[in-house]
Design goal:
Nucleoside Triphosphate Pyrophosphohydrolase; three-stranded antiparallel beta sheet
């Protein structure tokens, strides 16, 4: 189900599935059938945490040279707290840590195989945060071959859903990477680091 975006404070997020039970968060959920031959590709998708940072200068976006301008987003490895991952990886990218206000939006996509009842899920969680140290007007990325910029309007190569808003203490538009197509191929990744692990859940139910 979906609902209007509203900031939900959480102290930790070591289990993304716990968001489904949060009384104040309307998680966007989808179930999509796929062919058995596509299951391994879908299972290899990774959970991601997206960091939304904005002030009067616009929204902070990142370009790794391959995926265009997107909000910073990072893989959440197995058994790690998503908030800790966001803080650590944002610091590696920008040189400053975060004060995380909470979860602004969460989406869970479940892929099912009708023939053998397998299913796997992948999460995208948008956090709203404030850098502990002011990021310069002309920020420099700590990652190789990458750029950071404040944008009050989307660049020509920006994914549509990454268009920023300006002069806002909170976002009015979701700062999430472009929605993948229904084909279970690996989604576009705005992360500045190589994704080498995955976090997904696979289940089998009896008929």
């Amino acid at each position: 189900m979906t609902g209007p975006d509203s900031l939900v404070h959480i102290d930790s997020l070591s289990d993304l599935e716990s968001l489904l039970d949060h009384p104040d968060l309307a998680v966007e959920t989808r179930t999509e059938p796929i062919d058995a031959a596509d299951f391994d590709a879908a299972e290899a998708w990774t959970d991601r945490v997206v960091v939304g940072v904005a002030d009067g200068r616009g929204v902070l976006l990142y370009d790794d040279g391959h995926h265009g301008w997107t909000p910073p987003a990072f893989e959440v490895p197995d058994d790690e707290d998503a908030l800790a991952v966001a803080d650590r990886e944002f610091a590696a990218l920008t040189g400053t840590h975060l004060s995380i206000s909470g979860v602004l939006h969460a989406r869970r996509r479940t892929f099912t195989v009708a023939d053998d009842d397998r299913e796997t899920a992948v999460w995208n969680v948008l956090l709203w945060a404030t850098p502990d140290t002011r990021i310069p007007d002309d920020p420099e990325s700590e990652a190789d071959d990458a750029d950071l910029a404040w944008r009050d309007a989307a660049p020509d190569d920006a994914p549509r859903s990454s268009q920023p808003t300006s002069n806002a203490s909170r976002p009015r538009r979701r700062l999430a990477p472009t929605r993948p197509s229904r084909s279970p191929t690996r989604p576009r990744s705005p992360t500045p680091r190589a994704w080498t692990t995955r976090r997904s859940r696979t289940t089998r139910t009896s008929r």
